[in-house]
């Protein structure tokens, strides 16, 4: 019975890149310490910009505005007027609420 790679224990062979074979290691250009440091700084700046953008996207104020905009666009027609379905739902809710209030007042009188 063979075990999956993730479960296998014991000594492991070194991992090589697909183009890299044990006989012919991949040749990478040598970089100076300054070039490596510059690459690290550029990546750090890019990461900081990405984090700032994500924080801006996830701010509660922006999420609330986006949600309100989506709800508003679903409730109105492209011309800006209310949708018939929305008016019907509001009228139905008012009717049911009015009937409940009327019924509760009627029961108190008895």
UniProtKB/TrEMBL annotation:
Parts of the chain that traverse the membrane: 84-102
Disordered, as annotated region: 1-33, 58-81
InterPro entries documented for this protein: DUF3618
Keywords: Membrane, Transmembrane, Transmembrane helix
Domain of life of the organism encoding this protein: Bacteria
Biased composition, class Basic and acidic residues, residue ranges: 24-33
Pfam families tied to this protein: DUF3618
The keyword Metal-binding is assigned to this record: no
Protein known as: DUF3618 domain-containing protein
UniProt source species: Phytoactinopolyspora halotolerans
Taxonomic classification: Bacteria, Bacillati, Actinomycetota, Actinomycetes, Jiangellales
